[in-house]
Amino acid sequence: MSLKRIRLLIWKEFTQLRRDPMLIRLLMLMPVLQLILFGYVVAVDVRNLSTAVVDLDHSAISAKLEASFAGSGYFRIVAHPSSESDLRPLLDRGTATVAIVIPEGTQDRLARGETAPIGIVVDGSDSQISAIGSGYASQIIAGFNNDLRDSAGVSLSPPGVDARIRVMFNPTMDPVNTMIPGLIAVIMMISLMAILSQAVVKERESGTLEQMFVTPIRAGEYLIGKVTPYAVLATAQMLVVAVVGMLWFRVPFSGNVWAVLTGLALFMLTNIGMGLFVSLVSRTRQQAQQAMAFLMIPTMILSGFIFPIESMPALIQPLTRLIPMTWALIVLRNSFVKGSDFGPLAVPLLVLAGFALVIFTAAVIATRRRISD
Amino acid sequence: MRATLDRIAAIVVKEFRHLGRDPRALLAVVITPVLQLLLFSYAISFDVDHVPTIVVDLDQSTQSREYLRQYQASSFFTVVAEAKTMDAVDSAFDLNQARLAIVIQAGFGQQLASGGQGEVAVLVDGSEPTSARISQAYSVAANQLYNQQLTQQWADAQGLDLSSLGMLEPRVRTWYNPERRSSDFLIPGLMVVIIAIVTVQQTAVTLVRERDLGTEEQLEVSPLRKGELMVAKLLPWTAIAFIDVAVIIGLGRWLFGVPLRGDLGALALGSALFVFAALGLGLLVSAVAPTLDTANILALLIAFLPSFLLSGLAFALDQIPVVLQWLSYAFPARYMVTISRIVFLKGGGFADVWPELVALAAYAAAMIAISTLLYGRRAAR
Question: Which residues in chain B are contacts of A46 at CB distance < 8 A?
């Protein structure tokens, strides 16, 4: 192992990187862009749903009901169609995504002590809107009923359950607080895999890999020299995410820094191993690129980064355990949000260590074999 | 004109030969979308049920067991553990074994029996905000329901008639997808995202590769014009992307049973324009990127994230900050997701989607024109 040779290789990689100034700029722009997208799109709080109100009752009650929808902050009333048939074009074009239909005779029914149906129409072509819209609407009507009962002067004091709900760890339930810790792992995976998967296959395509073999460089030195520059780059990207996340998005950190760093180091080895492996088994750069996309997309979807694992079908859930990112996300999120220490993180850290050991060793052995062939 | 067509055809044949020489890559382009469709349509969901719940009964009375029965019976909750102390809750939350804890305080049964309020603490793990919100709503609803039952029982015992109170009752109808099947939500939008990922990546590298391999100079001295080269580079991938579109529509229709209610012609035209627009975007990347690595990363950045997050597939576009809404118009995916949903689910046709069709056509034309221009300028240097 010669430090001088490693240094020369690192210097060579950096020189190559510098030759394409756009690449470096892109790599630094990437975390910023992702922070904006994930911080403001994925973590968005659904409010102000465009709502059409069909008031067929024209009564004091219907006006009051409309006011409580408008005043809730969840619904923004954009249209007052005069009949239900006028709703169709509004929802078809997406002008409104929710509609409230107050049938004729609602006030009379209430006065007679009957149950009056209120129609809530949600646009089922959008899952987020339909789930949240119908939930909020039902909640507002329940609140309205309570007010009705109170104003009717019925003061009952039956026995009941007094349930106090307390949200632990993330009391505001602000999604940014879990999104940004996760993004640290995602950024590392994307940039390491994207560049390293090309690393070896690039040298092979341009024929410089053979030249490398006839030099005194050994496999271990080659690997370290090849990987170090990109590991440094990825670390810089992660720092950008962490700093912007904590200063701009005000994500609190309450865990153990060393636990996070251990997890990230293990996850980094795993990603380096995966990138090198893809690069070794691919014959062309295009194949490497496709293989990477093939690995990366399921990782993003199945790791629970955007969509909660609990929402996935029971058959898919065990599959998510086979993805290293799933465990890295547990380490990061539990550290940031729950303030977990080494103790509760032992299982995910051990699993990550297992992944790192197997994948990185396999990649090193494969590289060595390829080079000494 | 004739000569132009001949020259374009020659390049198209050349591109297909390249593809034919690498059957593994070709296979990947067709197989990957299918796998992605299967994976995504099962895995993407915001629906939460079977919330893992830990219950701590510090009262151990008939009433507390009665109260807990509703959590055991409901499919919204899965009781994963019954503990005697609060320590168990901490460790269950730390290890992500439970997302919800129901703690019944001592004296619960006595309070209820004496006509008072029994105390229950509901703890929600807020570290997974989507599930947390929904778990919270479920537990509020469960408690309301339980209280209604208690009130009813109490009223019956007191001989009161509660039915004289008028109430509003929400009747929720979900249009276009009454059963709220997630495949109906997802597949029309997923089709767009999958096509965007495949196409942008492919054309992003195509011009850079010619430059890397040195074949760019050869193309330059040939009678081929820049615009012809651009069109010819796009055509083979248009054909492949169209196969992908057809496969996805077929799978969605026959395997997942997604209804195709509208005009297939409008969908086909929309898909064609969209494929051209996405390929044009890839071509633009290829024209500006100096190296393959840059082209790859740039394509990844503009193909994957914006088409996933700024298309309206999973996150409603009218909810995000206005600046990002404007930004979403800069990527073709949002137009196509709208077309696809209107045609598939809302039964629309040309009359409903023409603004998006026009936008896509203009987008595609602009992309090809700009990349021709940029490529020409670079070559002239």
Answer: 316, 319
